[in-house]
């Protein structure tokens, strides 16, 4: 990822292209191939000489991105989504099967792994 004068020079040379193409040309692409617009714009502003504060205001995300809160809610369609952050933390793999055990009196839901017959 280019910064400073190199970033400004490269961005100027690509100025007739779409914004995403300029960001890509300056190296602002994540591991998945997604354009890192916020990082690109922040670097451009800093390259122009403006110092940006890195502290987060209340209600904004941290510099580390979204963090697992270990909270969820029932969706309008009745589904209850656990999410990737939680299955990853538990080391769960696609295709694993579970028996759902419900304790109505406490409102607890337990996922009991079903051993595969290999």
List keywords for this structure.
Pemi-like Protein 1, Chain: D; 29% helix; 4 helices; alpha+beta; 2 strands; 2 domains; two-stranded antiparallel sheet; 118 residues; elongated
Task: Provide a concise account of the structure shown.
The protein is of the alpha+beta class. The chain has helices at residues 4-13, 19-25, 37-47, 84-89; strands at 98-103, 108-113. It starts with a helix and ends in a 5-residue tail after the last strand.
Folded structure, characterized:
The chain has 118 residues and is α+β, with helices and mostly antiparallel strands. The chain folds into 2 domains: 4-47, no CATH class; 68-118, Pemi-like Protein 1, Chain: D (Ribbon), CATH 2.10.260. It contains 4 helices and 2 strands; from the N terminus they run ααααββ. The protein has a two-stranded antiparallel sheet. α1 packs across α3. The radius of gyration is 22 Å and the shape is elongated. The N and C termini lie far apart (47 Å). The model has no long low-confidence stretch (mean pLDDT 84).
Distance between the termini: 47 Å
Q: Order of strands across the widest beta sheet? A: 1-2
Number of helices: 4
What does the radius of gyration come to?
22 Å
Count up the domains: 2
**What is the molecular shape?**
elongated
The CATH C-level name of the largest domain is Mainly Beta
What is the fold-level CATH name, i.e. the topology of the largest domain? Pemi-like Protein 1, Chain: D
């Amino acid at each position: 990822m280019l910064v400073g004068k190199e970033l400004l020079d490269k961005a100027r040379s690509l100025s007739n292209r779409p914004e995403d193409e300029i960001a890509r040309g300056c190296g602002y692409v994540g591991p998945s191939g997604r354009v890192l617009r916020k990082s690109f714009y922040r670097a451009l502003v800093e390259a122009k000489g403006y110092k940006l504060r890195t502290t987060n205001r209340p209600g904004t995300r941290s510099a580390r991105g979204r963090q697992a809160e270990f909270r969820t809610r029932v969706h309008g369609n009745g589904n209850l989504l656990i999410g990737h952050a939680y299955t990853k933390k538990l080391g769960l793999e696609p295709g694993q099967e579970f028996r759902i055990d419900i304790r109505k009196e406490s409102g607890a839901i337990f996922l009991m792994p079903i051993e595969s017959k290999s």
